[in-house]
Amino acid sequence: MALVQLEKVSKVYRSLKGGDYTAVRDFSLDIQPGEFFCLLGTSGCGKTTVLNMVAGFEPASAGIISISGRPIGGPAADRGVVFQGDDSLYGWLTAMGNIEFGLRMRGVAAAERRRKAQHYLELVGLKGQNDKHPTELSGGMKQRIQIARVLANEPQMLLMDEPFAALDAHTRADMQRELKRICASTNKTVLFITHDIDEAIILADRIGVMHAGPASKLKGIVEVKLSEAERERTHDRFVAVYRQVHEMIRDEVALSLKRAQ
Amino acid sequence: MNQRLRIVGLYLVGFASLFVIWHVTAAWIVQSVLFPTPGRVILKAIELARDGTLWEETSASLGRIAAGFAGGSAIGIPLGLAIGSFPTVRRLLEPYTEFLRFIPATAMITVAVIWFGIGEGSKIFLIIYTTVFIVIINTAAGVSAVAPNKIRAARSLGASSAQVFFFVALPATVPYILTGMRLAMANSFVTIIAAELVAANNGLGRMIWDSRLYMLIDQIFVALLVLGLLGFTADRLFRWGIYAFAGRFAPVT
Asked: Which among A72, B20, B100, B110 is most buried, taking Cβ atoms within 10 Å?
């Protein structure tokens, strides 16, 4: 059974002046347990809206979103969210304090949560940075804290909203590699939002390509059946998948640019 | 360390120049009994310190500031948090904050004296009055400035609404609260002197007023000097306290 199910989900934003804006309409998607699913789309296509609804930050206007067969309510600890920027980190807490935050909120005993937080702190490559505050760390390290904070809480799935978009190219490549390694070792289900085709192919088991907004939905799904060695930008099979995805998204990019004018 | 020495050195030079200019103006340019030199003022200050008057008046004013400031903050912080957290509370209380904050504490002195007499009551009331609105407005602004993603992250990490408030909204607001308190502290100094000028049995404000009656210019200047020093010290202490105890909350000073 699918871990996450979206059935004909729509989201309508009501503006104060009256005119409604339909971000997504009849959006359907199944994500399997242990799967790394990338949702790819142009800017303004509603991919963040989908993530916000799955996270429970915004209710769906129509349709059903369920996790393990049960409809979701609001945000909950079974769905950990990694945000794009660093404004979700708690500046008054150390790296350690941030990572054990969820465990603390859920009443896990101090010794136990220290042990767990330490484990994930090391897993994301932040060993020895325990007592640093977020402002003392680089952008890449801050994203590592976010990832560790979510993993330490042991959610059923990870929701990641363009988590590496604000990083420089080298750090981004580094983080993508790390994330692959972490996901392989923890066997997490991931819904990953991105507008970067390369990133999607490097990370995903399946890529869902979205139509241009408004009233967007999935245009199609591409299965990325590549081995680790083939997930190199210059590999022939990587390029083949790139062409396939690019073919699908090219018209949508043109469309979204035209609509933006 | 060199950087530190440089900063302290520049500060001292700045202060010294203030006294030099004062001395030059008083001793050579103005040359009037109505404008004493810093030397005379300091001698007078020593005299007043010896007979205990200076300490008595200063501690009277400081005590009132401390009581009113603590009271005003104790009322202002929870109200500000409530206004910032709940739109309903904001709409209910905004008429009070937006209306009353434009009536300066100095304008309330007469009313305060009529209501609470010329003793401590009216002074503490006025300091609370001058403190409370600044603290409320800054605290409320701080709550609304908390990044929504901080709250969203907490919710999806399993925090309850109460936990979001105490472990996210409150600590994220601390820098704004402290800034509000620091501004309120400066206002307290203004208000207490005005209040004591109008009606009081003691305090630096009354010292100024009484000295005027007997034309004790030196004594007026002693009070002014003490006020400047006290305000400066209080502000430095506050800033130092913010950095020492709340540096991790990234204060906006």
From this structure: A72
Number of domains in chain B: 2
**Phi, psi dihedrals of residue B166, rounded to the nearest 5°:** -75, -30
Q: φ and ψ at A67, to 5 degrees?
A: -120, 130
Amino acid letter, residue A173: A
Residue B2: domain span: 1-33
Within-domain flag for A242: yes
Query: How do A189-194 and A157-161 pair as beta strands?
Result: parallel
For residue A59, CA distances in Å to A9, A32, A62, A142, A186 come to: 10, 22, 9, 29, 29
Give the integer Cα–Cα distance in Å for B186 and B130: 10
Is there a contact between A57 and B172 if contact means CB atoms under 8 Å apart? Answer: no
Nearest by Cα to B73 from B186, B208, B180, B149? B180
Mean pLDDT for each consecutive 10-residue tract of chain B (253 residues)?
A: 85 91 92 89 93 92 94 95 92 90 91 90 94 94 92 94 92 88 91 89 91 91 93 87 66 46
On whether any CB of chain A is under 8 Å from the CB of B247, the answer is no
**Inter-chain CB proximity B152 and A83 less than 8 Å:** yes
Best of B156, B174, B176, B243 to substitute, by most chain A Cβ atoms within 10 angstroms, is: B156
Total domains in the fold of chain A: 2
Contacts of B103 (CB under 8 A, 6+ apart): none
